[in-house]
Amino acid sequence: MVTTLTERYIAATVGNIPPASRDDVQAELEVSIADAIEARTTQGEPHETAEKAVLTGLGDPVALAAGYSDRPLHLIGPRYYLLWWRLLKLLWAIVPAVAMGGVALSGALDGTSAGGIIGSSIAAGITAALQVAFWVTLVLAILERTTGVGALPAWSVERLPEIRTKGAGRADMISSVIFLVLGVGALLWDRFRGFVVHEGDAISLLSPNLWPWWISGLIVLMAAQAAVVIAVHVVGRWNETFAMINTVIALAFATPAMALLATGELFNSEFVALILTNNGVDANSLRNLAIVTGAGLIGFPVWSIIDGWFKTVRDIRHRKSGIIN
Amino acid sequence: MNENNVVGTHLQEVRRGTIVLAALQLLRHAGYGYGLLEALAQRGFATDANTLYPLLRRLEKQGYLTSEWNTEEPRPRKFYQTSADGIRLAETLTKEWLALSEAIASLTAAPFTPENH
User: Fold this and answer.
1) Residues of chain B contacting residue A50, judged by C-beta atoms under 8 Å apart
2) Minimal CA–CA distance to B79: which of B38, B15, B18, B27?
3) The predicted structure's pLDDT at residue A315
4) Which of B50, B55, B75, B80 should be substituted to probe chain A, the one whose Cβ sees the most A Cβ atoms within 10 Å?
5) How far apart are CA B110 and CA B107, in angstroms?
6) Which of A27, A35, A70 sits opposite B34 (nearest CB)?
7) The predicted structure's pLDDT at residue A153
8) pTM across the whole model
9) How large is the ipTM?
10) Regions of chain B with pLDDT less than 70
11) Do residues B63 and B83 lie in contact, with contact meaning Cβ atoms separated by under 8 Å?
12) Residue B77 pairs with which residues in a beta bridge?
């Protein structure tokens, strides 16, 4: 059986229409096309060219079907476009970096070569970026097709973002997160691969007795610190809550670290013996080194606490002056 | 995009919406798809078939048109007719159009200049 162009056109159209209205649309479209062709053939046009002209005028059958079933002819329309773009930017700033850090870390622990680590983490970063783009787009394209008008809360002036203050920008967030990921990597490397290898044995800098609980606690604190940094970036400014959490994290780090240093449990005694004592560093110098280390262990958290509160006070002042102006 | 295209886009913007009004007015007397397309073209509302046919169904779904299959003729056709709601909508749209038309006429009659402001 030879099918006509009209039959093919109608089949292509109604195939893209919900079954409920398919028969009705088909019957109506058949007669509308027949009417239009007839109007041309009565003017003396051959049937074949008349049919072609009429179907060409109707255009792509899939577009016509979209018109019949009120389907959008775009993937993500103006209603969701901005949400899509904001989500994409936020996740792109976080997910690929985390994936790259994770892959680099596991590569380092497996003993992969530096080139192999770089290659696999770049591949992981690209894959993560593509995955983020795909899933965000898929979810919003589905929302575009399933939710009615007014599914999103209306925009209001209250939603205007604060002017992003210094210390809450994207670069601050990314550098802090990368620094923390490297820190965790250094901890794991020290434990499992060792920065110092003596006669084929890896000798860790930190005491092996700190595993697993002390080090796990430290990693939890670092994750919490990363969460604060990301939250500051999302909110766009420091506030009292962030400064308070930041203070708690810093104290939770400094207090046990000082206690462990004082009791000599922080560093690996084997490491101290091998690197320092065997090279002629006497007890007096060792004590001085411990004091310097202790100053660092206190100085860093104190700096972090002051920095957090300083930025908080500055941002609150900034906000108040903004309201007065 | 060349100049003709830009002008064409602006014209399309002005014409958008007039098809609904014209169809509601013409369908006070029942009519079918292709017949309405011809009637619109004759009265100066050139419309694409692929715009009109889905539009008729949308207006029917919104309750502004009613429809009925007429199977008495050799070629059975779906006839649409403007409902009571549709007539009210047509009146509202016509009023709006006339108000706009007057407003536009006043623009050319008394152009806005710093002197007469």
Assistant:
1) none
2) B27
3) 81
4) B50
5) 6
6) A35
7) 67
8) 0.59
9) 0.82
10) 1-2, 110-117
11) yes
12) B70
| Site from A6, A16, A28, A58 to mutate, B interface, most B CB atoms within 10 angstroms | A28
Residue of B nearest to A60 (CA): B50
- CB–CB of A250/A286 below 8 Å? no
pLDDT for A322 equals: 56
Q: State both tokens at B30.
A: 């029942």
The contacts of residue B38 (CB under 8 Å, 6+ apart) are: A39
Closest chain A residue by Cα to residue B51: A67
And the tokens for B89? 């909508």
> Are the CB atoms for A141 and A74 separated by under 8 Å?
no
Return the residue matching tokens 């420091």. A238
Percent of chain A predicted with pLDDT > 90: 24
What CA–CA distance (Å, rounded) separates B27 from B25?
6
Query: What are the pLDDT digits (tens) for A241-280?
Result: 899 999 999 999 988 888 888 888 888 888 888 877 777 7
Spatial neighbors of A202 by CB under 8 A, at least 6 apart, are: A192, A193, A194, A196
Nearest to B50 among A27, A31, A58 (CB): A58
Distance from CA of B51 to the nearest CA of A (A): 8
B35–chain A Cβ distance below 8 A for any pair: yes
Low pLDDT (below 70) residues in chain A: 1-2, 148-153, 161-167, 320-325
Say yes or no for a CB contact (<8 Å) between A32 and B75: no
Task: State which amino acid sits at residue B68.
Answer: E
Sign of CA dihedral A207, A220, A247, A237: positive
Residues of B whose CB is below 8 A from A39: 34, 38
Residue B66 is predicted with a pLDDT of 94
